[in-house]
Write a structure and sequence with these properties.
The structure is a single chain. By secondary structure, this protein is an alpha+beta fold. It has a domain at 42-108. It contains 4 helices and 2 strands, in the order E-H-E-H-H-H. The radius of gyration is 20 Å and the shape is extended. The relative contact order is 0.15.
Length: 113
């Protein structure tokens, strides 16, 4: 039996397909600096997370936080409910400047104002 030569399969890279191509990104910050302190050593925080994280990303509802205010001692992921609520209110307020309150409720299903 003759030896069969194997060639690598040619695979094309899949392009990202945006679910909502007409979404206008909302800019919550002008600079890549911490929302609280203004420092430049930052991590990206999605103002809405869990089941709404993807939508928050699609609409640009993210802010920059230092590690301390993101996942550290004073962080929104460590129980800083005051900052967490402030960021959610900011996200909804800025969202509703571009879209309607009804659209917010259809997408995120929760009123933070």
């Amino acid at each position: 039996m003759p030896e069969v030569q194997q060639f690598p399969k040619f695979t094309q890279k899949k392009q990202k397909v945006h679910k909502h191509p007409l979404i206008q990104k909302i800019k919550l910050q002008d600079t890549k600096a911490c929302y609280v302190t203004g420092r430049l050593d930052v991590e990206q925080h999605h103002c809405l997370y869990g089941k709404n994280r993807k939508n928050a990303d699609d609409y640009g509802l993210t802010v920059w936080l230092t590690q301390d205010y993101h996942t550290g001692k004073h962080g929104v992921h460590k129980g800083n409910l005051k900052l967490d609520k402030e960021l959610k209110r900011l996200a909804q307020t800025e969202f509703e400047k571009v879209y309607t309150h009804e659209h917010w409720m259809n997408v995120f299903c929760w009123n933070y104002l």
